[in-house]
Amino acid sequence: MTDIHATAFEKEAGFGDYFALLKPRVMSLVVFTALVGLLVAPVPVHPVVTLSSILFIAVGAGASGALNMWWDADIDAVMKRTAKRPVPSGKVTADEALAIGVALSGLSVVMLALATNFLAAGLLAFTIFFYVVIYSMWLKRWTPQNIVIGGAAGAFPPMIGWAVATGGISVESVLMFALIFMWTPPHFWALALFMRADYDTAGVPMLTVTHGRRVTRNHVLVYTAFLVPVALGLAFTSIGGPVYLAVALVMNALFLKGARDIWRRDETQAEADGYRTEKRVFRLSLYYLFLHFGALLADAALRSFGLGAW
Predict the structure, then answer these.
(1) 137, 169, 201 - which closes a domain
(2) Domain limits at 137?
(3) b (16+ CB within 10 A) / e for 32-43
(4) Number of domains in the chain
(5) CATH number for the domain including 45?
(6) What is the pLDDT of residues 111-168, one digit of tens each?
(7) How far is CA 30 from each of CA 36, 211, 236, rounded to the nearest angstrom?
(8) Residues 189 and 249 in one domain
(9) Cα separation of 213 and 282, whole Å?
(10) Nearest to 97 by CA among 61, 126, 71
(11) pTM of whole model > 0.85?
């Protein structure tokens, strides 16, 4: 009897499990890029509106995470990287994840509309729909291009932040979207190169599974080459500046070199050193996006003091 109660207690969901359901690490990236999109916009936003907007965008991101975990519970359970998530571990039921995801989705969109404008709320609603339905339910299990098209879901937050401030869409917000959109494939394919076994076991048609690591290495290099002009082009818009240009030059040179290093390797070499290069480039890709958006924020701060403008 004691063992049964102990097992039940161990599987009982706590606050941390429900918070993990919202994918906080993904949420933090969404919040950061949305905040940058809002703060670099040419229209000042009241601090209360800023805080409430970011809160509702974060809630929307969390809702997407919960719905994704509800739908992907079967494949999460067989992947080492995701097996301890709340739903496959049995701490949160699939029905609970679905109910939380739906409730938070509706709450975030309605509240963002009331706090800001219908364009920002509409973009948030479309982002949730795109991530859950287009990516999770359709693309992820159907095509090796899943992460290419599905990457759009993670690219919308700075556009939402910009729409909160301006009520519109501009070249600057589209380029911020494009920066994340083009960054996503090489970022995830670098991960997939050393995590292929997980995707293979789960039957997810990642490029490494359907076409092999050699083709994936080629794709990493090609997409990184397309990413570079997008990243540099943003420096010459109204939200760019010397800080962003310096960061973009350095980080894109490093990322392009990393992609070339991945492309030049064969599987014998990669397996022998435990995919050290692929892991290094994956870690670099995490810093890449943070530093680009941080640099945009730095240039905006300089402009507010009458400095740093082109």
Answers:
(1) 169
(2) 1-169
(3) bbbbbbbbbbee
(4) 2
(5) 1.10.357.140
(6) 999 999 999 999 999 999 999 999 999 888 888 888 888 888 999 999 999 999 999 9
(7) 10, 30, 24
(8) yes
(9) 15
(10) 71
(11) yes
